[in-house]
Amino acid sequence: MAAATFLTRLIGVSGVPIHRAWALRVIALVPVAAFAVLVSASLELRPNAWFRWAVVGLGGWLSWRGAPTWAAIGGGLAAYLIGTALVR
Question: Disulfide check for 72: which of 8, 13, 62, 83 has CB 3.0–4.6 Å away?
């Protein structure tokens, strides 16, 4: 997963033109799928896990509102780091 995510970001940063419609759809979905797997694997249904659920909700809300993937991940990560320092 990490290699696929890194390669898609490298392709985007390098400016390599992609002319196939199916390739563009696949490249757009790989980071979303990789991060969804990483995040959902760490969620728990315990009383003290509310904060993680709130951070995932924030990232989902940012994505739903049309924020780029990097903004949703960065916003969720920033909220998690700041909240962890304050709550725990």
Answer: 62
2: helix, strand or coil: helix
pTM confidence score: 0.51
* Burial of 76 per CB tally in 10 Å (0-12, 13-18, 19+): buried
**Can you read off the two tokens belonging to residue 48?**
């003290």
Buried b (16+ CB within 10 A) or exposed e, 9-21: eeeeeeeeeeeee
pLDDT per residue of the chain (88 residues) written in tens, 0 to 9: 567 667 766 776 777 777 778 777 776 666 666 666 666 666 777 777 787 788 878 877 887 788 887 888 788 888 888 888 887 6
Tell me how far CA of residue 85 lies from CA of 59, 63, 75, 82, in angstroms.
19, 25, 15, 5
3-class secondary-structure state, position 75:
helix
- How far apart, in whole angstroms, are the C-alpha atoms of residue 13 and residue 31? 14
